[in-house]
Please model this.
Amino acid sequence: MDDAGEGLDHMTYARVEQHFKSMEDPSAQERIDCVVSLLLSILPPPLVPAPEVDSDDDSSSLTSSDSEASDASEVHGAVAEAAPGDGEDRISRLPDLLLIDIIHRLPTKDAGRTAVLSTHWRRVWAATPLIVDDAHLHADGPHGIPIVRAISRCVAAHPGPIGGVRITGVPFIHHEYSLRRLVAVLADKDVKDLILVNRPWPLDMPLPNDILRCASLEHLYLGVWHFPKTTAACPPAFPDLRELGLFHCIVPNKELDAMLAHCPKLEVLSIAMSYNDPSRLRLASRSLQVQHS
Amino acid sequence: MAAPESGDGNNGAARMVTLISSDNTRFEVEAAAASLSQTLQLTILDGGGGGGDGIPLPNVDSATLSKVLEYCIKHAPAAANGGAPNATAVDRAELERFDNEFVNIDQSVLYSLIMAAHNLEIEGLQSLVAKKVADMIKGKSPMEIRRTLGFPDPTPEEQAEMNAHMLEYGWAYE
Model:
């Protein structure tokens, strides 16, 4: 029944993987990395840009003091333009709304550090929609917390709502349990924007069913996953979803139909390298634009 | 031609309005610049602020108001162009230079500015100051942030609490 001559819509992950591995010269890993970086380049930009790598060596980087121990002893070289204060803490007295505006502009780690400043700041951090970006968290830091655990802890520490999650650099292969937990928590805490890319191999890493339960999603981009069956116990529910991107995911037409049927507000459907025959996509949706690359 | 119709329904030469700070200083400024404030824009559209009577701003002192207006006057032309789609790269670079220079100020002034921007609903100015404060926090340890913002030294209890939370929030320190 899986007739090889039938065409692309019978494409399976196994065949794609076999195809990659059958070629030599650049290795399969190099080829797939190339594909993934192409996919990443067409994702929406991060909500908060990643900090420059050099300036954020470690929280305890007071060590580089041999160069020029200036009078303002605790000032980092990279952030030397900090406004002078007069020893009175005014900023903490700003209304919550403004402190939230400030925290919302910080990369994940820096925002998290404000939660340690005082009870007041911890409360404000908790009231700020969480932004998680794996590019803001170091992979396997000096104390050896794997990045998946760091992400999970960060999400667990926050009461929600979760504003945006962007994970693009993690091979989830050995973290299936953490991944399931993570997606379940994202669903529980009303994640609004989610970009979730699995770094291969394998190509058919199963995306947890709970993704179909993330009812607050407005933007969803998925890369390199084995898409869950929408006929599973919980049907998809995306009443507010406006943008859906499926990158390098094999999604059978039946599943796509079921998804779209539950996305009444969908405006953008972006399908990239999904090994589907585009002419066979039957799209039943009212206000949809299609970009096919 | 220097002051074309700025979309506020008035035409002809630049319309001026008067703003009165909490300490009773009067500032005369083009309506187009004052209209960067959403709250003032409404008053101005209703015909307020012209002639002899000014618009009283009981929450903004004169030092802060003059700083706020410096920002508004600089940004008014770009704002009148609807976010300046036809601004040249030079114009934009100049605005950016101005902005960077503008927030290079004491924290007490930053505080007054962001409060004024918030009360007067000047979105661009609020973002500018919020971004500046965020930049002051970025890349620092909690103790460094506390010192930068002028927290008093932690009591032993506070220190213990911070240490406990630093363990709990380990992902923020890796």
The first helix of chain A runs from residue 13 to 22. Residues 1-9, 54-80 of chain A have pLDDT under 50 and may be disordered. Chain A has eight helices and seven strands.
